[in-house]
């Protein structure tokens, strides 16, 4: 693996999942792999889980993680090629990224979309500019369109719950209401990874006009009828996203789309997943989050092992 920004960077998802589960069983088994290595973690946006789990993962491998809150503490970066920098940006990524490439061995970046311009966001300009100019492996901590560490974690968690079950699970991605227009990243990424994994019957359910980019969803069954989607589901992955076609809008915020224990009766005793943070009683009800079907804490705790498997793979590539 050269970089980790998409499922397409991973040759064998199952093998990465097994690597993560091996770290979960024995977190310090490669505690010297990252000795004398530095992992730079640039945040252009807020985070709790991604930041802490990736720092712990680096520490478990003996590497030093250095966090830089670019949005609060750094110079305002310019990403456009040939920009005339007479506005608010102070430093071009062409100048900043090569320096980070000298300071660090691996560069991890969180950079959310603007939700103003679909073409700009879906070009993944920011993370691609860091890949182009840093000269070192780049790990996405969530980019404009994808959240691969979260999706790897989600596959790890489903693999763990399934155990030795041979049956193909039914996995449902279910849109949920929200008060803000949110990116499509988690839903895009979950779709991309579940499709690439190829081990589930995958159904996506959302209200009309919330279609995601087909390059991520192709292969899934898509329905606007949530009840139909939930029937016999083994996993229900709940997430809000704003519209993709008429970009970044909230068209429908019907509270009827919030999952309840009553709706869960149609499932095969499904486990409920969410990447967190979650707006309680808007996206997901207390009764679900505090009930036996929720595996959101197990899922979030697995973020450490996902990050550790990815960092270990990239560190081995540098040996
Ligand atoms: N799921 C997730 O990425 O959480 P944070 O935004 O807290 O990192």
TrEMBL record:
The gene is argF'. N(2)-succinyl-L-ornithine binds at residues 142, 178, 239, 279. One of its GO terms (biological process) is citrulline biosynthetic process. SUPFAM superfamilies: Aspartate/ornithine carbamoyltransferase. Residues 3-160 form the Aspartate/ornithine carbamoyltransferase carbamoyl-P binding domain. The keyword Ribosomal protein does not apply. Pathway: Amino-acid biosynthesis; L-arginine biosynthesis. InterPro entries: ArgF'-like (IPR043696), Asp/Orn_carbamoyltranf_P-bd (IPR006132), Asp/Orn_carbamoylTrfase (IPR006130), Asp/Orn_carbamoylTrfase_sf (IPR036901), Asp_carbamoyltransf_Asp/Orn-bd (IPR006131). This is N-succinylornithine carbamoyltransferase. Homotrimer. It catalyses: N(2)-succinyl-L-ornithine + carbamoyl phosphate = N(2)-succinyl-L-citrulline + phosphate + H(+). Belongs to the aspartate/ornithine carbamoyltransferase superfamily. SOTCase family. It comes from Puia dinghuensis. Keywords: Amino-acid biosynthesis, Arginine biosynthesis, Transferase.
């Amino acid at each position: 693996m050269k970089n980790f920004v998409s499922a397409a960077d991973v040759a064998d998802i199952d093998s990465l999942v097994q690597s993560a589960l091996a770290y979960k069983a024995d977190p310090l088994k490669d505690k010297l792999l990252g000795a004398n290595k530095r992992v730079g973690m640039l945040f252009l946006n807020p985070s709790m889980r991604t930041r802490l789990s990736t720092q712990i993962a680096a520490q478990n491998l003996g590497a030093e993680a250095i966090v830089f809150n670019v949005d609060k503490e750094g110079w305002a970066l310019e990403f456009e090629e040939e920009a005339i920098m007479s506005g608010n940006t102070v430093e071009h990524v062409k100048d900043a990224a090569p320096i980070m490439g000298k300071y660090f061995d691996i560069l991890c970046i969180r950079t959310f979309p603007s939700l103003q311009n679909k073409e700009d966001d879906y070009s993944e300009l920011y993370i691609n500019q860091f890949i182009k100019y840093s000269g070192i492996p780049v790990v996405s901590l969530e980019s404009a369109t994808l959240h691969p560490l979260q999706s790897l974690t989600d596959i790890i968690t489903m693999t763990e719950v399934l155990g030795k079950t041979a049956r193909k699970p039914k996995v449902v991605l279910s849109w949920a209401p929200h008060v803000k227009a949110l990116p499509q990243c988690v839903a895009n990424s979950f779709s991309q990874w579940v499709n690439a994994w190829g081990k589930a019957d995958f159904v996506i359910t959302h209200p009309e006009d919330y279609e995601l980019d087909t390059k991520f969803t192709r292969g899934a069954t898509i329905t606007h009828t949530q009840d139909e989607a939930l029937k016999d589901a083994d996993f229900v992955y709940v997430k809000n996203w704003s519209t993709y076609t008429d970009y970044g809008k909230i068209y429908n915020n019907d509270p009827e789309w919030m999952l309840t224990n009553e709706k869960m009766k149609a499932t095969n005793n499904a486990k409920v997943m969410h990447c967190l943070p979650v707006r309680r009683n808007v996206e997901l009800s207390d009764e679900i989050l505090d009930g036996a079907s929720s595996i959101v804490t197990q899922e979030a705790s697995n973020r450490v092992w996902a990050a550790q498997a990815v960092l270990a793979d990239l560190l081995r590539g540098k040996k």
